[in-house]
Amino acid sequence: MSSQQTPSSPHGPADIADEHGHGHSVAAWAGVAVCLLGFLILCLAVVFPSWTWGIVGGVVILASLVVAAVLARAGYGVKGADGKPVGASRPKR
Questions:
Q1: What confidence tens digit (pLDDT) does each residue in 1-11 have?
Q2: How many C-beta neighbours within 10 Å does residue 27 have?
Q3: Which residue from 24, 31, 52, 90 has the fewest beta carbons nearer than 10 Å?
Q4: Cβ–Cβ under 8 Å, residues 28 and 68
Q5: 92: exposed, middle or buried (C-beta count within 10 Å: 0-12, 13-18, 19+)?
Q6: pTM
Q7: In terms of C-beta density within 10 A (0-12 exposed, 13-18 middle, 19 or more buried), how is residue 13 classed?
Q8: In the chain, what are the domain boundaries?
Q9: Name one Pfam family in it (predicted).
Q10: What pLDDT does 13 receive?
């Protein structure tokens, strides 16, 4: 393969910036941020032994799944509210 060619996929030339499905969305980032907060609370509950904070940390971790799902359904996920991939020049299937 020469330096002028780019790898191709069944949909045409591959462009890493154009790929979707890797979680680069507001919903994914918000879910991860809330989950990290839950793990921080849970870690502090282990360092400073507290069942109450341990339960709170676990609930926050579970809430991160809800946050990500709600935002994805609202159209902030990898797919828009209409179910189609968001972004410019996505490969058509």
A1: 555 555 555 55
A2: 21
A3: 52
A4: yes
A5: exposed
A6: 0.66
A7: exposed
A8: 49-77
A9: DUF6704
A10: 56
